[in-house]
Design brief:
mainly beta, Acetylcholine Binding Protein, Chain: A, 6-stranded antiparallel beta sheet, two-stranded antiparallel ribbon, 48% strand, ion channel, transport, synapse
Length: 124
């Protein structure tokens, strides 16, 4: 098994829809793991073009309850891959996602809603 560290920053909450029971947010997702096959001599990291991600193993992370998501791609996909001499890989991307959120509006306008943003990965 590969241990994957993750961090997530919410850049913006773009919309909240009571009618559709969802919200849209833009997030920065960073994942870090070590792959000994990528070790190299040196003391500086290598930053790779995001298009090279197809050549590497990356975690199969998905957003639970996502209705629709997309990676930003102006002018190229907003993905970063940095490889360190010890084989540690940093993989970062910017995603906008619309996520389902069941809301109880029976006490409107005195209601309080809690919406979650959950990430998971499939294990095979």
């Amino acid at each position: 098994p590969v241990s994957v560290g993750m961090s997530l920053d919410i850049a913006s909450i773009d919309t909240i829809s009571e009618i559709n029971m969802d919200y849209t947010a833009t997030i920065f997702l960073r994942q870090r793991w070590t792959d000994e096959r990528l070790c190299f001599d040196g003391n500086k990291s290598l930053s790779l073009d995001g298009r090279l991600v197809e050549m590497l193993w990356v975690p199969d992370t998905f957003i639970v309850d996502s209705k629709k998501s997309f990676l930003h791609d102006i002018t190229v996909e907003n993905r970063l891959i940095r490889i360190y001499p010890n084989g540690t890989v940093l993989y970062a991307l910017r995603i906008t996602t619309t996520v389902a959120c069941s809301m109880d509006l029976t006490k409107y306008p005195m209601d309080k809603q809690t919406c979650t943003l959950q990430l998971e990965s499939c294990k095979m």
